[in-house]
């Protein structure tokens, strides 16, 4: 079977990408006319993609302005959203108008951790227990060995989970402005190498990962603890403002919240909100995040109260928001532009981006929830969406 053209020395060039397009067109009789138009330089893509052939052009719209009163994100932001779903940007903008007129969204990053969870097997449960106690006693040495591989990663702690004669060690790192999966894998391996070289007992088997870190998939463990950033966005909305802008009073939205909580419980959902994934995915694509992390990042919790004066308190908590402002796809051309719009490009900005995304999610959930209650959900899609 013919192989896709490669050039070890000149793989990231316009000429090589053109050869690949011609190859795919010849092999499939399909046209790659539109995917061949791009402004970025192929040389900038090394480390981001293999067999670079062209681009997938996803439309970008800006929602906002959104007012955020965060610890890291403060002020008004125009939020880039890459999507092909009509009504999405308009809906988020509506939520941003409501929250802006209410004084802005308070945002807080309350925890930060990225994991790798190696598994060790032993002859029996008693030996596994002894190993666990040895790990606790030697944490400082493991920390030193792990951190030798990274200039920014810091080993925070090691959780332990045991089943039968098996023991998982869940290494928790902070990773600066990187998402950190690769950083943490390398650091955890170094720590485990030290363990295997120094543990006085016998380890029957070791593997660097055995699904407890749940990379690129949801887990309730990460909802209870944290993977990436654990972020809260919250706001108190005046009753009259909600009625004027969203066409539904707090009582109606709170009643719908109880129905939605029960529906999520019955369905076994990992999220009792409306559509966290929509806002997160759209911002992820625009800002160069690893979109597969939406599988974890879209889990979350909404919480609401009607206050004694009739106002509406509403919050969203995202327990596993995996974001970066440095490394990965964040350095590419259009992604840099979008991060610059938010003031989130480069080092020292990751918590700011996390807070902006959490605030965006809150706006989207308020808007969609209100549209459902006000019976405007279907009509808005008919007017702006794919049903037009």
Automatic annotation (TrEMBL):
Cell membrane keyword on record: no
Entry keyword set: NADP, Oxidoreductase
EC number(s) recorded for this UniProt protein: 1.1.1.34
Name of a matching Pfam family: HMG-CoA_red
Domain of life where this protein originates: Bacteria
GO BP terms, alphabetized: coenzyme A metabolic process; isoprenoid biosynthetic process
MF (Gene Ontology): hydroxymethylglutaryl-CoA reductase (NADPH) activity
Stored InterPro entries: HMG_CoA_Rdtase, HMG_CoA_Rdtase_cat_sf, HMG_CoA_Rdtase_eu_arc, HMG_CoA_Rdtase_NAD(P)-bd_sf, HMG_CoA_Rdtase_sub-bd_dom_sf
PANTHER family, alphabetized: 3-HYDROXY-3-METHYLGLUTARYL-COENZYME A REDUCTASE (PTHR10572)
Family: Belongs to the HMG-CoA reductase family.
Protein name as it appears in the record: hydroxymethylglutaryl-CoA reductase (NADPH)
Lineage: Bacteria, Pseudomonadati, Pseudomonadota, Gammaproteobacteria, Alteromonadales
């Amino acid at each position: 079977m013919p192989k896709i053209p490669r050039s070890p020395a000149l793989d990231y060039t316009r000429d090589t990408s053109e050869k690949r397009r011609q190859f795919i067109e010849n092999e499939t009789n399909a046209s790659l006319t539109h995917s061949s138009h791009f402004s970025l330089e192929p040389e900038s893509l090394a480390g981001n993609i293999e067999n670079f052939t062209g681009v997938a052009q996803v439309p970008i719209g800006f929602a906002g302005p959104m007012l955020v009163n965060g610890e890291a994100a403060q002020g008004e932001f125009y939020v880039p959203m890459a999507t092909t779903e009509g009504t999405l940007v308009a809906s988020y903008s509506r939520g941003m108008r409501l929250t802006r007129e209410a004084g802005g969204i308070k945002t807080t990053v309350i925890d930060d951790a990225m994991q790798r969870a190696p598994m060790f097997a032993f002859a029996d449960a008693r030996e596994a227990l002894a190993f666990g106690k040895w790990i606790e006693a030697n944490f400082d040495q493991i920390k030193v060995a792990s951190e030798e591989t990274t200039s920014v990663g810091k080993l925070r702690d090691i959780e332990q989970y045991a089943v039968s004669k098996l023991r998982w060690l869940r290494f928790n790192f902070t990773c600066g402005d990187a998402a950190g999966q690769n950083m943490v894998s390398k650091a955890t391996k170094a720590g485990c190498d030290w363990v295997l070289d120094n543990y006085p007992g016998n380890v029957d088997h070791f593997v660097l990962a055995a699904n407890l870190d749940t990379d690129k998939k949801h887990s309730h463990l990460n909802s209870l603890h944290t993977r990436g950033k654990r972020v809260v966005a919250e706001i108190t909305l005046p009753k009259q403002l909600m009625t004027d802008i969203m066409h539904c009073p707090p009582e109606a939205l709170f009643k719908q919240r109880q129905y939605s909580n029960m529906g999520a419980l019955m369905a076994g959902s990992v999220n009792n909100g409306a559509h966290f994934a929509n806002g997160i995915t759209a911002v992820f694509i625009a800002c160069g995040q690893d979109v597969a992390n939406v599988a974890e990042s879209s889990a979350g919790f909404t919480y609401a109260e009607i206050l004694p004066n009739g106002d509406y308190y509403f919050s969203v908590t995202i327990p596993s928001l995996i974001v970066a402002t440095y490394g990965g796809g964040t350095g590419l051309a259009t992604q840099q532009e979008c991060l610059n719009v938010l003031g989130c490009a480069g080092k020292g900005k990751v918590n700011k981006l996390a807070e902006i995304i959490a605030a965006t999610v809150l706006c989207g959930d308020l808007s969609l929830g209100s549209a459902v209650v006000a019976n405007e959900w279907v009509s808005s899609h008919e007017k702006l969406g794919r049903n037009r």
